[in-house]
Amino acid sequence: MSANAVCRHGDDVIIRLYIQPKASRDQIVGLHGDEIKIAITAPPVDGKANAHLAKFLAKQFKVAKGLVHVEKGFQGRHKQIRIEDPKQIPEPIASLMQ
């Protein structure tokens, strides 16, 4: 398992993601190299995929959408996301954390 995919920074969680847009459903797929693969239904057009990803992750981590930040990779499939003070960590991600 990769320690680089997920880490804690204070109360925040930083996740390196590989995004698969236009999928049949939203889901956390699992490890993809040194990143976590997430499939989302939104197309990669006009920031729709990033907005949809933020909404999906906010629901998974039980935080407001405003607490999910794209730190790197705004226009690409490889992203670094910061989630401020998550109330819950989804099982596929929690299993990668030490």
Task: Provide structural commentary.
By secondary structure, the chain is of the alpha+beta class. The chain has a single domain, classed as 2-Layer Sandwich (Conserved Hypothetical Protein Mth637, Chain: A), CATH 3.30.1200. Helices cover 18% and strands 36% of the residues. It has two helices and six strands; from the N terminus they run ββββαββα. Strands 1, 2, 3, 4, 5 and 6 form a six-stranded mixed β-sheet that branches. Strand 1 and strand 2 form a beta hairpin. The protein is globular and about 35 Å long. The mean pLDDT is 93.
Give the terminus-to-terminus CA distance. Answer: 10 Å
Mean pLDDT: 93
Roughly how many Å is the radius of gyration?
A: 12 Å
Tell me the number of strands.
6
C-alpha geometry = globular
Q: In total, how many domains does the architecture comprise? A: 1
Q: Specify the CATH homologous superfamily.
A: YggU-like
- How many H/I helices? 2
Helix/strand/pairing class, anyone?
alpha+beta
Helix content: 10-25%
What is the N-to-C order of secondary-structure elements (H for helix, E for strand)? EEEEHEEH
Low-pLDDT windows of residues: none
**CATH fold descriptor:** Conserved Hypothetical Protein Mth637, Chain: A
Biggest beta sheet summary: 6 strands, mixed
**CATH C-level:** Alpha Beta
Beta-strand share of residues: 35-45%
CATH architecture: 2-Layer Sandwich
